[in-house]
Amino acid sequence: MLTDAAIAYERSAHAFLNARDRSMIGAQLVALWACSLKKDAEVIELACGGGYPITSALQHPNLKLWAIDSSPTLVDAFHRRFPSVPIVCEKVQDSDFFGRSYDAVVAVGLLFLLPESEQITLINRIASILVPGGRFLFTAPIETGCWADLNSGIMCQSLGSARYQSALNDAGFHVIATLIDEGENHYFDAQRRS
Fold first, then answer.
1. % the chain with pLDDT above 90
2. What's the confidence (pLDDT) of residue 2?
3. What is the CB neighbour count within 10 angstroms for residue 9?
4. What distance in Å separates the CA atoms of residue 81 and residue 87, rounded to the nearest whole number?
5. Which residues does residue 47 pair with via DSSP β-bridges, in sequence order?
6. Which residues of the chain have pLDDT under 70?
7. How, if at all, do strands 130-139 and 87-89 pair?
8. What is the predicted pLDDT for the residue at 105?
9. 76 Cβ contact partners less than 8 Å away, ≥ 6 residues apart
10. Contact criterion met (CB below 8 Å) for 27 and 183
11. Planar angle of CA 140, 109, 131, nearest 5 degrees
């Protein structure tokens, strides 16, 4: 079984695009969250895929977007769909995030694809690219457990609500809210402390 999410998602990119393009799960929640950001907020989306439906939900006249994905096929689809949004093809673990800081970071369907140590490291790296008061919205089950990803077949790992909240606190965040979309996906909305 594949263990690298980047390789797995590239191999299943066309099937992923076909399935995700037809689903609006999460879009309304992300759109409402985006409306709570300050005017002209600079937002980076990690593991953006082809852009539907999450990037579409972030397409707000008051937001400036950047994006990252590790799949060349998904990055190509994203670029065709959102030519004005800067995107780079690289793993988030290796990214310099365009060498800048942001008001908000969005990571839908990403963290639990990574091993535990990489999840914690990524949370800390995200804290370092957010301005004080910046927001971090990500999905992860609140239960602790492992399962096979439906899109790629790789093993996923949820650290559970208590561990995510502890890791966020250690990285300088406080959790504003936990949210649930219509597909019963759990979101953590965290804010970097000033």
1. 83
2. 41
3. 24
4. 11
5. none
6. 1-3
7. unpaired
8. 98
9. none
10. no
11. 80
Is the pTM higher than 0.85?
yes
| β-pairing verdict for 173-180 and 186-192 | antiparallel
Q: How far apart are the first and last CA of the chain?
A: 43
Q: What is the 3-state secondary structure (H, E, C) of 111-128?
A: HHHCCHHHHHHHHHHHHH
Euclidean distance between CA atoms 131 and 173, whole angstroms: 11
* Tens digits of residue pLDDT in 44-55: 999 999 999 999
Residue 17: strand, helix, or coil? helix
**Among 137, 140, 170, 132, CA closest to 157:** 140
β strands within the chain, DSSP E: 41-46, 63-69, 87-89, 102-107, 130-139, 144-148, 155-159, 173-180, 186-192
From residue 40, alpha-carbon distances to 60, 81, 143 in Å are 10, 22, 35
Q: Compute φ and ψ for 192, nearest 5 degrees.
A: -70, 130
Take residue 39 and report the two structure tokens written for it. Answer: 């005017």
8 A C-beta contact, residue 30 and residue 48:
no
